[in-house]
Amino acid sequence: MNKTIALLVFVGFLLTSSVGMSATSGICNQPLPELFKQVSPSVVFISAISIEPNKLNNRVNIAIGSGLIFSEEGLILTNSHVVFGRQAIFVTLDDGRKFPVTLLGADPISDLAILKIPDAPKELPKAVFGDSSKIQIGEEVIAIGNPLGLEQTLTRGIISGVNRIIQETQMPLMLPLIQMDAAINPGNSGGPLVNLCGEVIGINTATVSEAQNIGFAVPINLAKETIPELIKEGKVIRPWVGVHGKWVEKDALAILNVPLTEGFFIEAVEPGSPAQKAGLRGGELPVMVASLEILLGGDIITHINETAIASPEMIVKIYRSLKAGQKIVIDYSRMGKKMKAELIISERPILPGDLLSGASSGLMPQSKRLRTGLPLIW
User: Fold this and answer.
1) Across-strand partners of 177?
2) Is 111 assigned a catalytic role?
3) DSSP secondary-structure letter at 276?
């Protein structure tokens, strides 16, 4: 415990010091060979071993990826999908030294994880974190990693978009990513996206396999917010109500010509969730409304703690205000009858669909707009 606290204190200092902040506020245009020499020593190659216990043959799988040393204590930032659930993890430094590492924490939803080299060698090279809130479309960037298991490789591109959403579910948990056209492949996952100042502005995580040169990176500001909790708790603690559904405006439902209450339509309730224990019900009748598929017949949530659910943006706001262990009151409508339920928020478990599958994943992008009937999972 004392070791964990010490690490947390150190990282808190790191993230508020010049090491974790932007090295410069000016415009940089370093030559690419100089950038590579500056950043690549802090990039590591990761190999992770897992076993499929239900198989008789081909039981051992080896995942490869990249990571980024960000402290002299041997802390490494990478993608969760590279190391989560693995039996053994090894890193190879830029100078060829290989070490077994410990997984301190992982968050499949943000696709971030922290590794530690036990008894880390002294004077490890470490990366400089930039400020991903300042990036601009058209800005030139480089990606450094170990694609397909090859030794360190640099690819070049530009920022193609910001705040991109590629998850198809869990709208309150949707991760706004950086889109870029620097080529990334399996093995690049967990490696840095770097600006021309030599600052890490993102962690490369996924591509759309049907496209060409469309890649995504987790913004480094999100990583800076997540690192302390991953080290302290080993995970990111999120609230869990346990309902799936959609928010749909009355105008879209008028076509049904039945009296329906505007709000959050519960389509499914997670087994064992606080919502199930409180007696909330999901839908049974599939209906198409203006090309929007809805499973009707479930409860309709109208208020949470007396706050009206008047938009999907409000759902996101309410969700992000909830804490595990918190008691809430839900107002809902069941077949036109107004009802209330009290429940205690649980800690969210890892659910199907939470895992990003990484580079060359085939993930399909979604619109940034929220008023499209995207599925929501609380």
Assistant:
1) 164
2) yes
3) H
As a whole number of angstroms, the distance between CA 139 and CA 305 comes to 44
Sorted by sequence, the CB contacts under 8 Å of residue 258 that are 6+ apart come out as none
> Considering only CA atoms, which of 69, 102, 13 is closest in space to residue 203?
69
Which token pair is 39? 């950043």
Establish whether 244 is a catalytic residue.
no
The position carrying tokens 């800690």 is: 347
Identified catalytic residue from 42, 47, 71, 81: 81
Q: Could you write out the DSSP letters of every residue in 150-174?
A: -S-EEEEEEEEEEEEB--SS-GGG-
- pLDDT tens digits, residue range 112-129? 999 999 989 988 999 999
Q: Catalytic residue at 17?
A: no
Supply the DSSP symbol for 108: T
Q: Which of 22, 40, 132, 189 is catalytic?
A: 189
β-partners of residue 67 are 44
Candidates 301, 264, 295, 263; CA nearest to 282 is 295
CB 130 within 8 A of CB 178: no
DSSP line for 287-332: EEETTEEEEESS-EEEEETTEE--SHHHHHHHHHH--TT-EEEEEE
The label of the residue with tokens 């690049």 reads: 188
Average pLDDT in the chain: 82
Domains of the chain and any CATH numbers:
239-347 (2.30.42.10)
As to burial, measured by CB atoms within 10 angstroms (0-12 exposed, 13-18 middle, 19+ buried), residue 350 is middle
Q: Do 344 and 325 meet the contact criterion of CB atoms below 8 Å apart?
A: yes
Q: Higher-confidence residue: 89 or 17?
A: 89
Tens-place pLDDT, residues 278-331? 999 998 888 776 666 778 788 989 999 999 888 877 887 888 888 999 999 999
Least Cα distance to 131 among 34, 8, 28 occurs for 28
